[in-house]
Amino acid sequence: MSAADRISNIRRWRRPTPSSTFTASYKADPDPSKINLGVGAYRDNDGKPWVLPVVKKAEQAIVADGSLDHEYLAIDGIKSFTDASVRLILGAASPAVAEKRYAACQTISGTGAVRLGADFLARFKMAPVYISNPTWANHRAIFTDAGFKDIREYKYWNPKTRGLNLDEILATFKAAPNGSILLLHPCAHNPTGVDPSFDQWKMIAQVAREKNHVIFFDCAYQGFASGSLERDAQAVRYFVDSGFEVLIAQSYAKNFGLYNERTGCLSIITRTPQLAQNASSQLCKIVRANYSNPPAFGARIVSLVLNNPQLNAEWEQQLKTMADRIISMRKALFEALTQLGTPGTWNHIVDQIGMFSFTGLTPAQVKVLHDKYHVYMTENGRISMAGLNTSNVRRFAEAVDWVVRNVN
Ligand SMILES: Cc1ncc(COP(=O)(O)O)c(C=O)c1O
Predict the structure, then answer these.
(1) What percent of the chain has pLDDT over 90?
(2) What DSSP designation does 137 have?
(3) Domain enclosing residue 163, as ranges
(4) Which family does it belong to (predicted)?
């Protein structure tokens, strides 16, 4: 069979429904009361994307900087960016930072960071991988494509309490083969919006320690979840400070609004500086054969902001503006449902954190929300709080009230 025959035999891959598809059908919908809660990106109170003013400032400074050119970057990217990324997630005072016990590599946003980490583990630590159920749809695909054959799930969501299934999580990690890989969301779990409390993280760490599991944190929402960079990093810092060697994927899509600049970082925290250098060389080997070296613009923006105290303070303020707006929409939705007397309990709306909320609405209810009320959201009942604003939150609550009373 010729190569052409084999290519003509390739079956079509059915694309998942990305936020851009929602946006396309949402845009085409002429109904003026339509609401888009499918999009996984921040929107301001007018429903518009927001370019952070500090990002605009940094962009202008970069364009005006005559010393910058378009030469290739190093394989592992801009060092001032990757060093600042590690300080951001671990804290500047972390012993791992002072002792240079980290390998850090600039990546193609958070997705690229998870993929680079998966490729690294596939070479040096092939073991069962545990992903949460539910999780961000790409996790399974990334580990599968990296060559992992044994991908298992831990039940994360308790539909009865609409909260964390801690008992199941602990039991699964206890029963897992020693040295398994645990993929954890350190904050703003996607899609549930449910995070373990600090004490619950300690329990998870205890089991992971006993079983010698490998921890891989996928951190796509630092600062975006609670509005506090420290709070959103507390799980990662706890594990690292108590001696774990961990992998950390960071994304600057949400917290800098740099979605299409594909700016991220993968770090591996090791026991010794020598091991960090070894790990760093292996990350470079993978990147080199993959895309040679990363793009510059997004990383230049982040590096400029994180390394300049004045810009950094402005960024933290603007990050808080985004987080606070989302928190205020949670409150507004909860209050509207309470006022309407919508059957069921809705505390989870305010207890959950970050951009997403797992409403507990059924696929049938989601369908009616779409067909009757022009609400765009994923079939699993997940809504992006960023799509709510002071003009549409009441309307959405009334639509939810109707489907909860009339559709099973
Ligand atoms: C849990 C999680 N990981 C990683 C990502 C990757 O984001 P990006 O590749 O845009 O940085 C996302 C984005 O939605 C996410 O929710």
Answers:
(1) 90
(2) T
(3) 72-307
(4) Belongs to the class-I pyridoxal-phosphate-dependent aminotransferase family.
Would the CB of 384 count as within 6 Å of ligand 1?
Answer: no
Return the residue whose CA atom lies nearest to atom 16 of ligand 1. 190
Q: How many A from CA of 403 to the centre of ligand 1?
A: 31
- Measured from the CB, is residue 354 less than 6 Å from ligand 1? no
Question: Tokens in use for 129?
Answer: 């991988």
- End of a domain among 243, 272, 307? 307
CB 233 within 8 A of CB 186: yes
Residue tagged active-site, from 50, 57, 136, 346: 136
Please tell me the total count of domains within the chain. Answer: 2
SS (H, E, C) 264-306: EEEEEECCCHHHHHHHHHHHHHHHHHHCCCCCCHHHHHHHHHH
Mean pLDDT of 387-396: 97
What is the reported pLDDT for 40? 86
Does 21 score more than 90 pLDDT? no
Our measurement of the distance from residue 268's CA atom to the centroid of its chain's CA atoms, rounded to an integer in Å, reads 18
Ligand 1 centroid from CA 110, angstroms = 5
- CATH number of the domain that residue 376 is part of: 3.90.1150.10
Burial label, 337 (beta-carbon count in 10 A; 0-12, 13-18, 19+)? buried
Nearest atom, ligand 1, residue 136 CA: 1
Structure confidence by residue, pLDDT tens digits, 143-186:
999 999 999 999 999 998 889 999 999 999 999 999 999 999 99
* Last-in-domain residue among 307, 332, 349: 307
CATH of the domain at 229: 3.40.640.10
